Amino acid sequence: MKVKFLTVLTIAAVAFLAACGKSDADLKTAVESKLTADGVSGVTVAVNGGVATLTGEIEDITIKNKAEASAKTVEGIKSVTNNITVKAPPPAPVADDKMIEGTVNEAIKKTGVTGITVAVSDGVVTLTGDVKKDDLAKVMQAANESKPKKVENKLTVK
Q1: Selecting from 1.10.3720.10, 3.40.190.10, 3.30.1340.30, 3.30.43.10, what CATH number does the domain 22-86 have?
Q2: Residues facing residue 52 across a β-bridge
Q3: 140 CB contacts (<8 Å, ≥6 apart)?
């Protein structure tokens, strides 16, 4: 009878421990390890009641999605709250006005068209001078190739 009681007690203890599962601290460590193994960095993990909360600021949306997917694969995690933010990309560098002016002048020179004056202010190209009707499209294309904010056509068409 004593053996039967110990067997039942042992089974009950194992069932109780299995039902309890891993602690939140153990789950946090497991998620952190999984993220590291999957090459995800810059993410902070918190676990409460088996719910993992991911925070941090990262460079790429794919990393945010990868972190969530990785955390969901950890045994014992019931759900994942993904509060990771993605940094805004830096603004594209604006070319210096003098550099734009030089690029546009060179492009126009390659077209063989002469008599055009190029001025650039805050990334806006202003074209002045006289141009033949047949050359206007070539000049405008050349001006736009430097990717300015805008091209203002103040050319006189002959």
Answers
A1: 3.30.1340.30
A2: 47, 80
A3: 127, 151, 153
CA 8 to centroid of chain Cα atoms: 56
Within 8 A by CB and 6+ apart from 87, the residues are 57, 58, 59
* SS3 call for 89: coil
Q: Give the model confidence (pLDDT) of 86-124 as tens digits.
A: 998 777 665 688 999 999 999 999 999 999 999 999 889
β-strands 116-121, 124-131: how paired?
A: antiparallel
- CA pair distance 50, 45, nearest whole angstrom: 12
pLDDT, one tens digit per residue, over 33-48 is 999 999 999 999 999 9
Instruction: Give the confidence band of 17 by pLDDT, cuts at 50, 70, 90.
Output: very low
Structure tokens at 135: 């050359």
Residue type, 3: V
Q: Given a cut of 90, is residue 158 above it in pLDDT?
A: no
Contact 117, 105 (CB under 8 A): no
As a whole number of angstroms, the distance between CA 65 and CA 56 comes to 13
